[in-house]
Structures are given as structure tokens and as C-alpha cells.
Design goal:
Elements (H helix, E strand, L loop, with lengths): L1 H41 L2 H4 L19 H13 L6 H7 L3 H13 L3
Length: 112
Amino acid sequence: MKPLRQIGSLVLLGWALGSVAPALAQSAQDNARALHVRQLAANCAACHGTDGRAVTGSPVAALAGMPAGKTMEALQDYKAGKREPTVMHQIAKGLTDAQMKTLADYFAAQKP
């Protein structure tokens, strides 16, 4: 009887792990995505401030709380050369549309 009990325990353990593993994998993916987004946003911090909160009196725009569409449009305009050349046109040229959208959504979600 003991081997049957062990097999039953292993089956139960396998079932439990099978139901928990997808949630753990999703959690790991969410954490990796959050870190990726924070890394992208950190590239903006030198000029636009941490999480897009520019220093008071700075001539550089604060990004925190800016509507995502406005940020996206600005990045696309820099990339296309429609805005006066600054360091931003070089930075925008290195971003994909997906990265621009990610940044725009991230800064829109930040409190000013």
C-alpha cells in the first residue's frame, strides 16, 4: 500500500505544480516586462527627470502625466526630422514604434 500512497502523492504534487506553474511563468514575464519598461524610461531620466518628472524650472518638458498620444506624436516627429534637431532626434531614431508606444504609455501613467 505504501508505494500506491507515494504514487498518489506524486500525482497530487504534479497536479498542484501544473496548476501553479503557469501563474509563476506569467508573473516572471510581467516582472521582466516591467524591468524592460523601467530600463527604457531610465534612458530619459538624465534630461526629463526620474519617471519623467523634470526639475522645476527646467527648459526640458516633463513627461510624467503627458497624454500617451502627445508623447508618441513627439517621438515620431523627432524620428522623422519634423522637429528642430536636438539630441532627441538621434534618440528617437534608435527607438522602434513599439518602444515609443511603451514609453508613451509608461510616462502617461506616471503622476506629475
